[in-house]
Amino acid sequence: MDRLRSVWKSMKMEGNPFGNSSHQRNQIFLKFVAFFLLLGLTYRFIITDSTGSPIAQVRTSSPEPADPSGLTASAAQAPSPVYSPVNITTTSQNASTKCDIFTGNWVPDPSGPVYTNISCRHIQEHQNCLKNGRPDSNYLLWRWKPRDCDLPRFDPHQFLHRMRNKWWAFIGDSISRNHVQSLLCVLSQAQEVEEIYHDKEYRSNTWRFPSHNFTLSVLWSPFLLKAEGVSFSDIQLHLDELDPEWTHQYTNFDYVVISGGKWFLKTSIFHENRTVTGCHYCQGRNNLTELGYLYSYRKALRLVLDFVAAPNRKARVLLRTTTPDHFESGEWDSGGFCNRTMPFKETEGEMKREDELMRDIELEEFRKTQEEEEEEDGSKANIALLDTTSMSLLRPDGHPGPYRYPNPFSGMKIKDPPVHVQNDCLHWCLPGPIDSWNDLMVEVMLNREIDNKS
To answer: Quick one: where is this thing mainly located (predicted)?
Structure first.
């Protein structure tokens, strides 16, 4: 700026800018050119310095992805998800058959579940956590996200359309019933269902969607094997006989989800070839040999897989892996609890030894079935794996805990001594994490090819 002032001053001192001589006119012309060049350079310098770099603005305008650990206790304050829901489609275009949909993380989903404990009438009282007084709701605001792909959302309308004139059965223990109730809640948002059968204890049920002639059943068979005295301390378990409660109607089914697990930890006496061959957890009783739960579980799975993979079976089958519990400082009847309100991250959480061993057996026996089928006729068995173990391990916040019962702390005051309330850290709140099992189930069973050996 000082240079500009000096140039302008020299021009004024010269008097008439259009002097009489050509030499003067040339000097004046050159001074004008120099003046406007300096003025333009100064203006550009000032503007550029004041606005900054547009590239820097672009880089700093996008916030970092929300950290799931930043969720507060209020559902309304949930952060934006780390992925875009519009990228999740109702087809399997984004979930490559090479993508491992069972490995991933739980990501924030402020949209929450597609149903509520009010809009669905199929929730068992023990899993109706909000109705029973659970004070937090953040456990509803997460969705399973595989590491390397997007998982399609469950579309109840599309599902019912594809299930016209079909029969889908879940065979297993109370976790299977928990899963069926989740599926019913999602489907009921598209169409209400009618119950057409239940046993005396409401452990086995059958429903039908009349407009699609779609039948859905849950068959309570906690061991999958023939078992006697299930309600008593010593269970008589026949390791070479399947439970006729499900095998006698198996030919009706088009799709089957089958699972076992926790019941094999109970005290049981083993029968094979009409002879007692050993037991689990019965040391010192009648000189029985302790064979352990891993022995009986492997026997059961081998028998089940041989049955469902037989050449004359039409049903497509999913073997669901064991469900880990999240009891801390005890178990069901020894003061165990689960009071966490946030999911674990992928690198957190440690599976209990018995869950790890049972899942190993499941994977080994499943692979053996596939290898045997390929050796016989070169095709894969009509069975696939529904590996929900790892994703479930990351959700210690999804259980009823003390809210298995209505208002378990009602009437208690802060000064009152702590009262033992039995916690349920095995089953799942509805709505809750188990709803994502449906996304996986449909992706594996319907969107990925399973050879149908009908």
So the answer is: membrane
